[in-house]
Amino acid sequence: MTLKLRAQETPLDDPRSRYFFTPHADRPFRVTAGALRMYTRAEIAACLATLQDAARAVGGLEYAQAFDSDEHPENLWFIEDDGEGAITALLPSEY
């Protein structure tokens, strides 16, 4: 299984690149049912750790990030939502 973080379209120095994908009490981490059916918990956790490392390295990322999969019919997305206050792993079809 290879999951590769897709390069974001927004420049890293853009003000919208301010998300760190770090769950805490006010920002829980959620995984949709579809993402859990398609990907293992270990794969999802590894992707979240990759996002956190990448965000720390560049001072923040855009709110929506995608991991491309070479084995599954759908890629894995992560969204950090200001409005709802959650970080969610989901499939594109669940958006």
Which key features would you list for this structure?
95 residues; alpha+beta
Q: What does this 3D model show about the protein?
A:
The chain has a 5-stranded mixed beta sheet. The two termini are 23 Å apart. The radius of gyration is 13 Å and the shape is globular. The chain has a domain at 33-95. The protein is built from 2 helices and 5 strands. Helix content is 25%, strand content 24%. With 95 residues, the protein is of the alpha+beta class.
Write down the secondary-structure element order: EEHHEEE
| Morphology call | globular
Helix content: 25-40%
Q: Would you tell me the structural class of the helices and strands?
A: alpha+beta
Task: Give a short overview.
With 95 residues, this protein is of the alpha+beta class.
Describe the secondary-structure layout.
Elements: E1 3-5, E2 29-31, H1 33-38, H2 41-58, E3 64-69, E4 76-81, E5 86-90
Parallel strand pairs: 2-5
Antiparallel strand pairs: 1-3, 3-4, 4-5
